[in-house]
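anyone else get weird line breaks when pasting these?? whatever heres mine. first is seq + tokens for prot A
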Amino acid sequence: MKPRKIPMRKCVVSQQLYPKKELTRIVRQGDGTVAIDPSGRLNGRGAYISLNPELALKAKKSKVFERQLEVSIPDSFYDELFAYLEHKKARSLLGL
């Protein structure tokens, strides 16, 4: 039997390829709002970031999501993203 292909995606901050399950998707929805997409299935334009919380700070400084998603993003979104990535990384380290 053939081994299953693992879908790879590129983190827009670090520019490294990771398996899709090791990334978090940020999506610009049809109405122009930006949201964290934990399921990876929301409709809209998406960009991926690694589970490293420091990358959220780097993304805030470089405004990489604003360029990728072509929409202005408030600073509060980056704070929410940082907290989400910290929580997600802690869960992955515990094996949950």
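and prot B, same format (seq, then tokens)
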Amino acid sequence: MKYVMLVYQGDAQERQASLPEDEQQQVHDDYQGIRQMAGVTSVPPLGVPANATTVRVEGGKTLTTDGPFVGMKEAVGSLFILEAEDLDAAIEVAARVPAARYGGAVEIRPSEVYW
């Protein structure tokens, strides 16, 4: 089954930046290891939420808003697709994402096709 893994950075980037250099390198290596795992499809890093544009359509009119959708406390920092046997296997991979250890979180959603 395919799972979409949404990585919420929270304050992980700030916390990681204050780590000693060897621990920062370990964080980098952990992300690189996940990107290279069999069954992982990574996407390019997302830009910062402040540069986002949110699009809605109301009454046939396209409305745009600067910034992320609503007032999210934690914005999505990255995402990847994981081909895993089951949810437990996906949870094991999510637990390896450094952001989950440093104040962020990883949301796992089964990938479903609606069209």
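btw re prot B: The CA atoms of residues 43 and 113 lie 19 Å apart. The chain has one domain: 2-110.
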